[in-house]
Design brief:
Length: 506
């Protein structure tokens, strides 16, 4: 069997990391089985369409290296892969179900349905359009054929609903959950085709999975309640033979473990829940993205892979290729996976450590250029080498090293209080002169020169080094001071010392 799986998002906003994980598991499954990974955009609900969302989804997949074999922009034997471009396909299938008695036309207006809902609510019931109520409502099951025809000819709006069979148990096998069953009495007669001439998710999804020869449907747990309907649809169409296998993935849970991870959790605790930054086209609100926060895509992929799947070993760091090799659907857990923001940072740190100075310098130069800073690649590489150990997110590169690119103009007040004494300016003036003669200007020569001065003048090293650091970086942080000095170069060091002595007034 040729494995064919699809990721089928609806472009209703930015892709949540839970959605990205669904895409990842589909991708891994496809690659593992030498199958095909398809992207299908499910955009038949025009009321939920959000401009830019489809582009966002595609860019997110690309950023993570989850390239699809068939889909928008790539094409494929079952194109088009955007449901809005397939709209003429679905009506025929809805009609087939009406003809075979598995679906019916319902003429109830939205207002009528709303009033039924309200009445039920007032009685403490939940309204459901199902076998128990359809017999009393305005549909092709209750109206005569002539009346139905007359209404259609008059242009009365109607929807097509699926006729859920009464008193049946729908059994299914889920690759993650094992056998699951649903009594048909809990199901409502879902709308398959809307009055606006478009199919609903259920019809379009099943028809397209069938037409695109999908072998495995791997999707989020929130779609499990739709499974019995989908199975009934396959049966009603007579497609049971080619019905895909289903796998419903567990939720990604809040760090506290209770409930689905939401954007609010991320905002509250300062971690992104979206792969890329997203600007809401309606209210311009910005949501943070992993990319912009300084995560490496390989780290994000690794984090997501282990949220719900376990490799059966202690190994934690997996490249995408290693994941393809190790992945298996039966190691996906049934229960939700708790998201741990600290662990996510840890993963990123491991990936940063794995990168060579040269690779990190390349990434950093791009950031520097965005800030209008021109720097020599060898210099940036040396900077990276000094600070790499302290970097967790790519953005820390700048936080940890900006003083290598811009001289401090302001100095940390608390550090001044602690390290700036009356004798400091004179002392540093001397040090500047000592350094002028330090040749070559490397770490050892600098260190020896300062030590020699300290001994000769019976001054503690701290009295020199602490205020010196303050003038060179602006505070009491950063890597080893003589490393900083050697890298900044003699001229710059002396310039910063002389500038600082004048600038700091206590
Ligand atoms: N369009 C659905 C979604 O937005 C797809 C669900 C499925 O994969 O069947 O998640």
């Amino acid at each position: 069997m040729q494995v064919r799986v699809r990721f089928a998002p609806s472009p209703t906003g930015p892709l949540h990391i839970g959605g990205l994980r669904t895409a990842l598991y589909n991708f891994l499954f496809a690659r593992k089985h030498k199958g095909t990974f398809i992207l299908r955009i499910e955009d038949t609900d025009q009321t939920r369409f959000v401009p830019g969302a489809e582009e966002y989804i595609i860019e997110s997949l690309k950023w993570c290296g989850l390239y699809y074999d068939e889909g928008p922009g790539v094409g494929g034997p079952y194109a088009p892969y955007r449901q809005s471009e397939r709209k003429n396909i679905y009506r025929e299938y809805a009609d087939k179900l009406v003809t075979s008695g598995n679906a019916y036309l319902a003429f109830d207006t939205p207002e009528e349905i709303e009033s039924l809902r309200k009445t039920a609510e007032a009685d403490g019931r939940v309204f459901q359009y199902d076998y128990s109520v359809r017999i009393n409502l305005k549909n092709s099951l209750t109206l005569s054929e002539t009346e139905t025809k007359r209404l259609i000819e008059k242009g009365t709006p109607y929807v097509i609903r699926f006729k859920i069979p009464e008193n049946k148990t729908i059994e299914a096998n889920d690759l993650i959950r094992g056998s699951v069953s649903f009594p048909s009495s809990i199901l409502d007669d879902k709308v398959l085709f809307k009055a606006d001439g478009l199919p609903t998710y259920h019809l379009a999804n099943v028809v397209d999975d069938y037409l695109m020869k999908i072998t495995h449907v791997i999707r989020g747990e929130e779609w499990l309640p739709s499974l019995p309907l989908h199975i009934l649809l396959y049966k009603a169409f007579g497609w049971e033979e080619s019905m895909p296998q289903f796998a419903h993935l567990p939720l990604i849970l809040k760090p506290g473990g209770q409930g689905k991870l939401s954007k609010r959790d991320g905002d509250k605790s300062g971690f992104p829940v979206f792969p890329l930054q997203w600007k809401d086209p309606f209210n311009e609100e910005i949501s943070a993205g992993y990319r912009e926060t300084g995560y490496l895509p390989a780290a994000v992929v690794n984090i997501l892979a282990l949220l719900g799947w376990n490799p059966g070993s202690e190994k934690e760091i997996f490249s995408l290729d290693e994941l393809v090799e190790a992945f298996s659907i039966d190691r996906v857990s049934k229960s939700g996976a708790r998201f741990d923001p600290e662990k996510a940072r840890w993963f990123n740190q491991q990936y940063i450590k794995q990168k060579s100075d040269c690779e990190l310098a390349d990434l950093f130069i791009t950031e520097l250029t965005k800030k209008g800073i021109k720097a020599d690649i060898d210099y940036v590489e040396s900077v990276v080498n000094l600070i790499k150990e302290r970097v967790i997110l790519l953005n820390d590169l700048w936080e940890q090293s900006y003083f290598f690119f811009i001289a401090p103009e302001k100095y940390n007040a608390e550090t001044i209080k602690k390290v700036w004494k009356t004798e400091t300016p004179g002392l540093l003036e001397d040090i500047a002169s000592v350094l002028e003669n330090a040749e070559p200007f490397n770490q050892t020569v600098i260190e020896n020169a300062i030590k020699k001065y300290a001994e000769e003048h019976q001054t503690g090293m701290g009295k020199i080094m602490n205020p010196l650091r303050l003038l060179l970086v602006g505070g009491s942080f950063g890597p080893h001071l003589t490393d900083i000095m050697a890298l900044l170069g003699k001229e710059e060091v002396i310039k910063r010392i002389r500038y600082g002595i004048k600038a700091i007034k206590v």
